[in-house]
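Help needed: design a sequence for this.
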């Protein structure tokens, strides 16, 4: 029953596309190909851009390191994409070493502390939103979510991701997200 309720919560939080107002918008990284965002990352960046344009936050934090052999990080690619669409470089902070959601959000929390940021709007795919919200709250920030509506992850693949995330949320709530990350890698 706990997993079913958690799955419903993952689904419900993923339906929030608004975001409210905060000190910063945080875009979770996803694959990039030689400096070009994947469709998944582009969907997240477009959602962050909509938030930025409506004045939801004065700062955008982009996240994500790179894979071995990559010339660019996910954060660099995200920053370039946003700048090409009108977000000034001075309004973008980069977390470019994280290789997992937990690592990226730990680094975001450190950046936020250095820059006086206390609240964030997290942008990711719908299935990912609850887990990252709970992670960033465990790290001491106030968080809201704004899931992308245009994720390329759809159908059975999206359902499978929702179930996986429900398992991660359920375990993280019991053990803590840092410990869960260290156990699952």
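Sure. Designed sequence:
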């Amino acid at each position: 029953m706990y997993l079913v309720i958690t799955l419903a919560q993952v689904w419900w939080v993923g339906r929030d596309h608004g975001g409210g107002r905060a000190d910063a918008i945080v875009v979770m990284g996803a694959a990039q190909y030689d400096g070009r965002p994947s469709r998944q990352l582009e969907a997240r960046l477009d959602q962050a851009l909509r938030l930025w344009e409506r004045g939801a936050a004065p700062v955008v934090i982009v996240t994500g390191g790179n894979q071995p052999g990559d010339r660019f990080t996910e954060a660099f690619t995200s920053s370039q994409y946003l700048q090409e669409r009108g977000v000034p470089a001075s309004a973008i902070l980069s977390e470019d070493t994280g290789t997992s959601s937990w690592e990226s959000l730990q680094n975001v929390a450190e950046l936020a502390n250095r820059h006086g940021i206390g609240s964030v709007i997290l942008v990711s795919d719908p299935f990912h939103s609850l887990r990252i919200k709970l992670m960033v709250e465990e790290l001491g920030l106030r968080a809201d979510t704004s899931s992308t509506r245009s994720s390329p992850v759809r159908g059975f693949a999206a359902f499978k991701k929702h179930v996986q995330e429900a398992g991660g949320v359920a375990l993280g709530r019991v053990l803590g997200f840092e410990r869960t990350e260290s156990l699952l890698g």
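The helical segments are 2-13, 39-53, 74-84, 101-115, 129-138, 155-175, 177-184.
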